[in-house]
């Protein structure tokens, strides 16, 4: 009986497949663990939000003051606010850097398409280099209405 198993060379054929399966399972497990560990480092990161004033504007050129605040509502200094056209047309990209009070002023020249009654201007925030800030969630948009 033992002779039959010792002379059987087919057992070695399944070994590479088993090793590949073990490697794939190991890599998948390592990936899950690394994602969990990288998620732990973001626990101290504060989400930023943009608070435009006014939130509603007409077409044409107008100044909009944007206050950047952290998750606790505190103003954030040296954040860059970037305004781009959403569903409204914006002539160029506009940027402003917040001061000590967390406010930056943008001069927006928005327009709407034919037969369009309203649109939006998208606001994004580039967090300051110093501090644990991020801007992953959507910010308040500026609503543009036809005059």
UniProtKB/TrEMBL annotation:
| Cross-referenced InterPro entries | CarboxyPept-like_regulatory, DUF7382, Ig-like_fold
SUPFAM superfamilies per the UniProt record, alphabetical: Carboxypeptidase regulatory domain-like
Domain DUF7382, first and last residues per copy: 43-107
* Protein name stated in the entry: Carboxypeptidase regulatory-like domain-containing protein
């Amino acid at each position: 009986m033992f002779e039959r198993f010792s002379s059987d060379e087919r057992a070695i054929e399944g070994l590479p497949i088993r090793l590949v399966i073990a490697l794939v399972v190991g890599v998948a497990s390592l990936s899950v663990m690394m994602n969990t560990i990288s998620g732990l480092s973001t626990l101290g990161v504060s989400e930023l939000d943009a608070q435009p004033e006014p939130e509603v504007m007409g077409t044409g050129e107008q100044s909009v003051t944007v206050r950047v605040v952290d998750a606790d509502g505190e103003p954030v200094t040296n954040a860059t606010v970037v305004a781009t056209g959403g569903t409204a047309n914006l002539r160029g990209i506009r940027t402003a850097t917040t001061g000590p009070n967390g406010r930056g002023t943008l001069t927006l020249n928005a327009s709407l398409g034919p037969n369009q009654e309203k649109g939006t201007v998208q606001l994004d925030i580039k967090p300051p280099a110093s501090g644990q800030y991020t801007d992953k969630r959507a910010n308040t948009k500026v609503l543009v209405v036809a005059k």
